[in-house]
Amino acid sequence: MNILITGSAGHLGEALVRSFSAKGHQAFGVDLKDSEFTTHVGSIVDADFVEQCIKGMDAVLHAATLHKPHVATHSRQDFVDTNITGTLNLLEAAVAAGVKAFVYTSTTSTFGDSMRPQPGEPAVWVTEDLPSRHKNIYGLTKTCAEGLCQLFSRNMSLPCIVLRTSRFFPEDDDDSNRRAAFEADNLKVNELLFRRVDIEDIVSAHELAIDKAPQLGFDRFIISAPTPFHRVDAAELVSNAPAVVKRYLPNYVSVYQSRGWTMFPSIGRVYDSSHACETLGWRPEFTFGRALKRLSEGRDYQSELARSVGSKGYHDVVFEDGPFPVDE
After folding, report:
1. What angle do CA 98, 102, 106 make, to 5 degrees?
2. Which terminal Cβ of the chain has fewer Cβ within 10 Å, N or C?
3. CA-CA distances (angstroms) from residue 261 to 245, 258, 264, 287, 290?
4. Looking at the 3D structure of the chain, how many domains does it have?
5. Does any domain span residue 312?
6. What are the start-end ranges of the H helices in the chain?
7. SS3 163
8. Is residue 248 one of the residues assigned to a domain?
9. 6 has which bridge partners?
10. Contact, 159 vs 213, CB < 8 A?
11. Each residue's pLDDT tens digit in the chain (328 positions)?
């Protein structure tokens, strides 16, 4: 299969090129930056460039984006150009080229402030049906691009799948308070309970999305490590998250104590990826439970693919007060 992968110099794009090439597919990478995994260097905002790249492709995996770390360093117009116009160019070229599956990598940031509980409220249970309340240009433009995918699926019969991924980057957290309170790995393993996913599991979701797209036509899926929690836990997660975790995974206490780690005192949102598991047949491997097992054995909790891709940073410059400037 010939597969065009946008954003090939980035974390996910590289992982996709690596993985699909290893499985015998012809993976062609597109990015503004040249890299070992980039076949075509150029911008998806350039419609002529996109048209040339997409000829002869069976599937498109669209991972290129301006994302949250760029909100404080790029203009709103930059976000519109890349995230909306770039996606439109790819969709139009995909229809013209007879592409059989278009997979759009979106983000759980599209939900915005809908994921923030008010004081005294239980944790927000985040499913695909949760309405969006955008808090920045990133989430807004990603939602608009999702709408374009749905439009092209309905009006142009282009099979499109949207994957709303949760956190997977290995870089330090942008919140200085969290960085001060938790070791980086402690924080990331905690997040596997409710808002993080390993990049290898994201790749497997893209592979399934290609296969299922012709059958489904269009659908959206949250891609996050399956949570051990249930909706009835929502109130207690806010008031006493460690007690809820201990109830489901009591061995977490000894594993954490051996490392001097701590659990978040409160969890205010939970991503529910059951729709992807049920409809796509997604079977993510790198869960919180597996992380505990690997840590207890003295092994890395991440996948080999995550370690191979490693950290790339978000910008060409280094900021003194965090991995990227936070837009207030």
Report:
1. 160
2. C
3. 14, 8, 10, 18, 17
4. 1
5. no
6. 11-22, 47-54, 76-79, 86-97, 137-156, 176-181, 184-191, 199-216, 234-248, 252-259, 274-275, 288-296, 304-309
7. strand
8. yes
9. 30, 62
10. yes
11. 999 999 999 999 999 999 999 999 999 999 999 999 999 999 999 999 999 999 999 999 999 999 877 787 789 999 999 999 999 999 999 999 999 999 999 999 999 999 999 999 999 999 999 999 999 999 999 999 999 999 999 999 999 999 999 999 998 887 888 888 999 999 999 999 999 999 999 999 999 999 999 999 999 999 999 999 999 999 999 999 999 999 999 999 999 999 999 999 999 999 999 999 999 999 999 999 999 999 999 999 999 999 999 887 655 655 455 554 555 4
Among the listed residues 77, 85, 132, 80, the one whose alpha carbon sits nearest the alpha carbon of residue 109: 132
List the domain range (segments joined by +) for residue 128. 2-301
Tell me how far apart the alpha carbons of residues 31 and 157 are, in angstroms, rounded to a whole number: 27
Provide the 10 A C-beta neighbour count for residue 96: 12
- Residue 311 placed within a domain: no
- The verdict on residue 318 lying in a domain is no
CATH number at residue 130: 3.40.50.720
pTM (predicted TM-score): 0.94
Q: Tokens 């290995």 map to which residue? A: 170
Phi and psi dihedrals of 165, rounded to 5? -85, 145
Residue type at position 152: F
Going from the C-alpha of 281 to that of each of 133, 209, 302, 305, the distances in angstroms are 29, 10, 22, 21
- The sign of the dihedral angle between the CA atoms of 97, 86, 33, 17 is negative
CA distances from 79 to 48, 51, 155 (A): 20, 21, 25
Question: Which residue bears the tokens 């150009």?
Answer: 81
